[in-house]
Amino acid sequence: MFSHGSESLIKQAREIQESELQKFYSRLVKLLQAKEHSHETVDSLQRLHLILSATKYARTLPPELHKRVLSLLSSPSEQLQVLGSAVLRETLPLSGQELNYNQENVSQLNSHAAALLLSQARSTADLSSLCAQLLRGLESRQSDGSAHPLTHTLPVLNTVLTHRPECLTEDHVTLLSKKLVDWLRYASITQGGCASSGGFFTGPRSRQPVPTAELDGTVSGDFFTVLCVGQSFTDDQWMNVYSFSMLRHWLLTYHSVSNGNATADTANRLQLSLSLSHSHSFSNDDRSEVDGSVVSMVSATSSSSRLLPPKERLREKAFQYCQRLIEQSDRKAHKKADADLQKACLVEAVCILDCVCVEDASLVFRTFPCIKALFGEMAAVDCECVWRLVFARFPSELFNDQFLAHELLRFLQLNLESLQLRVPQYIRSFPNLLKLLAWDSPALMDDFVDLLPSLVTAGTAVELLHTLLDLPCLSATLVLQHRSASLPIAESSARGLLSLDAFRSPSFRGLFLFLLRGEAGSGDTIDRLNTLHELLAEAADWPRVVQCSQSVPVLLHIFFNTVITIADEKLFAHLILVMLERSSLLLNIPKYITETHRVFSCHLLKFCKLHPSLVVDQSHELLEFAGATANVYSKEEIYTHVVWVLGEYLSVSCDSRCSVKLITSCFEALEAVLFEITSSAPPPGAVCPAPRVVTTLMSALAKLASRSHDLIPRVSLFLSKLRTVTRGGSVAWCSDEDDLVAIVTRGEELWSLLKSPGVAQSVLTPPQHVMTPRWHRDTNVATPLQLRALTNLTQSQ
């Protein structure tokens, strides 16, 4: 918060009266009319800025004051430039007098005026016009004075490129590319000031131009670069430095000008390239001398490059410039600051070479020798070895290194498209990559939310699903592995965990080795999952394991949503079997089991709605699951949805293979379960069946009976008995009176429907055209006509 004095000043600025404000404006105009600006002028400008910024309403200055403040932007005092720019950014431009720099006053442009120009641009057209004016200033020959306006032109253009690259036209790109070529390659090689050899009779005629030097003190043997030094620099040498500073950004961004709608792609390319400058580090000890002469290579190509189009010529000159920088980086600098500058320029040069090689593959062969010299044998190493290191050793051996995990996942995200297309090891490495998540779920969850869809393919889906479900077990196993390595067997503290003993036991080694596998393809899952869960039972309340289990439901949702976009019916059928099987094979963490069953239920409905024939294909497994009474008490969520799916989609209208025999067998299985749970108390240790389970079973039986009328009497008999039994008061299988009333009410509704089989079939199994009506589009029905009539009536009113 502000101090008491600051709050008092802000309050005064907000509550200033209009009459007092006008007097203050008049006094400030008189101060600005003076030839010399005193401290009172500075104080008044600061007060004006406070008055304008203290309120959320933008004010308009009087025309005379606005003109005077605008003139401060070209003041020799930078303090006045800053104050003038700050004041004008808090005001509205005068009507018809928006800030505009044309060819005559472009010489007044500085960074503060540029900031104001950009802040007051109202549209893309304004920015495009500004760029055109700035570029025309570049095109015209500089005066004999300093290059002050040009040094601020490039930062302004760079800012426009960052935020609105589409403001530049193809002509702008061509012009700026040409100018960058001139500044990068053809800057003068002599120092800016007139050097003297000394002596008593030193005069203008005796002063000779002195060439620039390298960082090791030798005379520069080739064209000027940012690593050349001297007592002073010429204007075009300064432009050389400015051009190099924005070169990579320009190479990454000018594509959006040509392609129009490639801004998002440009942003991704820019982010990827910028990340390289933080991930490369170099050491003079690790580099060998550059083979061959860089200078000779540059000279050999300079003449032919003049025939290239502007963009291609800029790439060629950028390539030559970077090669020269790499050669200069091998020189021994005399100052530590110069050595640091060498390293920074070397990183930037490698990043620029990466950009130009992406654009022109022919440059890769010319770039390879100098890159090989920088990195030694690493430049020619087999990619298989590198990927084996990245996807195998790093995650499996250093899964507990948080910095490595963050950098590795960031690298994968930035290069995801290339990895999917060109690196098959990436898809197969998900068992290893998930170790990072299993060890540190809260910190890495966001990264895996982005990466998981790229790991889902038709070939990996089943094994990946098993691996996600086993993630808490993997987390516990990594903890055991870490403890086993840090605690010798002889120590008493290492003997307190039964799971640690099991981890070290040869009898169970295979179970843990499967969880710790480094690559997919050795099998979807293991047979003795129950045994594994018993061995890891004490790990169910370990904080790391609990945190890991909380991330699984989110990842499962992402997994299933991705599967829907790539899977065929065969894969859907396999995944349904996995869901039914694994619903009872999960590490015993109650909340984790409940949430996983909820995810299974949600996506089981999506699968069957997308492909109703799956219910007939998997009817045997679904009936086996629904016919097990124990599932009513232990898997309420998924059991309810399996029963609903059977009742909803086991119909001839969904699949012509659905026979009366199949409907009858399903009916009998569900009837037996419903009879059993409503005729006796729940087993010891179990709660009463949920009302939703009972009503879903009743509805499913009614739906099946409406499709095979021979079954209607059996349903009606059960429903009538249910009503009779509940009249006597409470029952053993339902402890809540309100729940019992709801169950009986649903039974009476179904019983009433089944009295009229035709009506029951229409209500319980409606035709497809009723479920997906198109009355608002179908001109053969009366509804559109009625709607049009009502519309005409309401509009006329």
From TrEMBL:
Residues 447-793 form the AP-5 complex subunit zeta-1 C-terminal TPR domain. One of its GO terms (cellular component) is AP-5 adaptor complex. InterPro entries: AP5Z1, AP5Z1_ARM, TPR_AP5Z1_C, TPR_AP5Z1_N. Residues 375-435 form the AP-5 complex subunit zeta-1 ARM repeats domain. Residues 1-272 form the AP-5 complex subunit zeta-1 N-terminal TPR domain. PANTHER family: AP-5 COMPLEX SUBUNIT ZETA-1. This is AP-5 complex subunit zeta-1. The lineage of its organism: Eukaryota, Metazoa, Chordata, Craniata, Vertebrata.
